TrEMBL record:
One of its GO terms (biological process) is methylation. This is Methyltransferase. Residues 44-136 form the Methyltransferase domain. Keywords: Methyltransferase, Transferase. Pfam families: Methyltransf_25. The keyword Transferase applies.
Length: 266
């Protein structure tokens, strides 16, 4: 698996900041209690995007180093942090392949949102073993395994329109994406962080038409950069198809957020 980190989310940053749902507050309360976060720890959020983890985590630690290969994402994250009065996030341009260049120091917590699958996971976890304190943790956030939850019917409407414009293969920068064969838990189980706990939170997210359309432009595989000069036609067709599906313009989605908390065996 070889991707150019800085090209995966080209053009997505403003849509990402506005339309991604973020994580439930209960998740950060749980991490604080489970990991004993008391405002004295340093944390690293790799593939931070616009700070969906870094910003709510910041109030629980001394400092968050929020790292992303896309400068546009970091710019959006900085704006959101300023709006919330958060000053203890260090926004850094970089990626998981060049951690040594970031001079990170000792870390109590390393987090990943929708980013761990983009990395060379075994290599990265070995590198993190040298950075994470003995009582520290690696936390991977995401959704459940495919098929665990029935997707909403409107997602198939979106998929049909996207396939007409971009083809059946999932795009990733200038190439295509292949999902890792091994689960995150299997990879973590053979790493130095092999003690694994899994916790989840369920919620229903309700979106309007504009939010569903904008959300598509936040994804690496249906970004405005991927669509190019087909963007306007794609948006028009998607709006028509979704309006036919739901004339009321209401789109519900049952979402499960899963946290894999990986620590060293005691």
């Amino acid at each position: 698996m070889h991707y150019q980190p800085d090209e995966l989310f080209t053009s997505t940053a403003p849509y990402y900041a506005k339309y991604r749902a973020g994580y439930p507050p209960e998740l950060f309360t749980h991490l604080t209690d489970r990991l004993g976060l008391d405002g004295t720890q340093n944390a690293l959020d790799l593939g931070t995007g616009t700070g969906a983890i870094a910003i709510p985590l910041a109030e629980h630690v001394r400092q968050v180093m929020a790292v992303d290969p896309d400068s546009g994402m970091l710019d959006e994250g900085r704006k959101l942090a300023v709006e919330r009065g958060i000053t203890n996030i260090d926004w850094r341009l970089g990626d998981s392949q060049h951690l040594d260049e970031l001079h990170l120091g000792q870390l109590h917590l390393v987090t990943f949102g929708q980013a761990f699958h983009w990395t060379e996971r075994d290599v990265l976890l070995s590198a993190l073993d040298k950075l994470v304190t003995p009582d520290g943790a690696v936390v991977v956030l995401g959704g459940p395994a495919p098929g665990a939850i029935e997707p909403p019917a409107w997602l198939e409407v979106v998929a049909q329109v996207r396939t007409r414009y971009l083809g059946p293969e999932r795009r990733a920068g200038s190439g295509t994406y292949t999902h890792p064969k091994e689960s995150h838990q299997d990879v973590l189980a053979r790493s130095p962080f092999s003690h694994i706990e899994v916790v989840h939170w369920d919620r229903t997210i309700t979106r309007d038409l504009d939010s569903v359309v904008g959300l598509q432009f936040s994804y690496s595989y249906s970004s405005t950069a991927q669509l190019g000069d087909k963007k306007d036609a794609f948006e028009d067709d998607l709006r028509c198809a979704l309006t036919e599906f739901s004339p009321q313009g209401i789109f519900d989605e049952f979402v499960r957020t899963e946290a894999i908390i990986a620590t060293r065996p005691q």
